[in-house]
Amino acid sequence: MTLPSGRSLRNPQMFVIQVETLFQSKECTVFYRKTNLTIFLLILSVLSLAVAGCQAPAPAAEAPSIPAVSFTATETGFSGPDSTPAGWTRVELTNQGEDQHQAQLFRFLEGKTMNDLAAALQGELTGVPEWLASAGGPTGVMPGASASTMVNLEAGDYVVIDVIPGPDGIPHAAKGLIKPFSVTAASGATAQAPDADLTVELVDYQFKISDQTVAPGDQTIKVVNTGTEPHELSLIELAPGASVQDFLAAMASDAPAGPPPGMPVGGIGAIATDSEAYFTANLEAGKHYGLLCFIPSSNADGAPHFMMGMVAELAVEG
Question: What pLDDT does 176 receive?
């Protein structure tokens, strides 16, 4: 036998016997047992890391659903809760009266209260007072119907009010449809804004619609006010062949007697500048809808915005 250095073993057989003896010794046995245990633990650690890497991550916590606050309107007043937590809220209105109603929300600013609002209503308003922040709410709700809007409510003192005039021309607020309401600070996670199928931008004085033709069925509409005044969106289902201008002509004081060629089917009450709100409308295939803003302008001696051009039409596929 030749060694790596080139030198030869004198007795190769004795070398083999010595090596066999070494591997059979107690010290060698303990060494190899320790080595095998170390290798086993290393392999187990690697397998554990591999299994951990294959496990699916823990699911993210779901955002809370949008809570609802419900009001009922009759000819003499509102019924409903006195408060709700801040955040995105679904404001619902059920009309159990005989006239069209709304649940317009306003937040008091500058320390104003219900007493200040009562005094202002005694005069002739030419627009929304600066100390009221328009916060939306369901509008254009016909007798026996229900509607809702989704609004992001800040903590503060509010009023729920119906300023739509009745058949006698007197606003329903003067007949008792006015209710104080408070929004308390949120105590936990709040809901996120809903996804929208259509976006309508409110500017001075027009509607900018992201798509003039929409699919039939339930459509969630996002309404954004980028104007300098409060604006609303009243949705009108137009009669076949009628236009939004036909509807307005029929509403004029000198129009012939008879129902107008269209009917309110919801929408969103006035919202403040740089704010947004959502509502869901069930749009019927093949029909046309009018969009109107009835808010009086503080820049035009109280003229409603629709008289300043804030009208539009929306067609439904089918």
Answer: 94
Greatest pairwise CA separation for the chain in angstroms: 132
Tell the residue number behind the tokens 């408070």, with chain if given.
182
Residue 279 one-letter amino acid: F
Predicted pLDDT at 230? 95
Structure tokens at 190: 């709040």
pLDDT value at residue 54:
56
Burial of 119 (0-12, 13-18, 19+ CB in 10 A): exposed
Do domains 63-192 and 194-318 share one topology? The answer is yes
Confidence class for position 14, pLDDT limits 50, 70, 90: very low
Q: How far from 185 is each of 86, 92, 154, CA to CA, in Å?
A: 5, 21, 8
pLDDT at position 300, please? 83
Phi, psi of 257 (to 5 degrees): -65, 150
- pLDDT tens, position by position, 254-290: 888 889 999 999 999 999 999 999 999 999 999 999 9
Integer Cα distance of 308 and 125 in angstroms: 18
Secondary structure of residue 105 in the 3-state scheme: strand
**Could you tell me where the beta strands, DSSP code E, fall in the chain?**
68-73, 78-79, 83-85, 87-95, 104-108, 132-134, 146-153, 156-161, 178-184, 198-203, 206-209, 213-214, 217-225, 231-238, 262-271, 275-283, 288-292, 311-316
Task: For residue 19, give Cα distances in angstroms to 7, 15, 145, 149.
Answer: 18, 6, 99, 89
Task: Supply the DSSP symbol for 8.
Answer: B
Q: Is 54 helix (H, G, I), strand (E, B) or coil?
A: helix
The yes or no reply on domain 63-192 and CATH 3.30.420.40 is no
CATH number for the domain whose boundaries are 194-318: 2.60.40.420
* Half-sphere exposure of residue 178: CA atoms within 13 angstroms, side-chain side: 15
Tens-place pLDDT, residues 226-249: 999 999 999 999 999 999 999 999
Cα 226 to Cα 216: distance, rounded to the nearest angstrom: 27
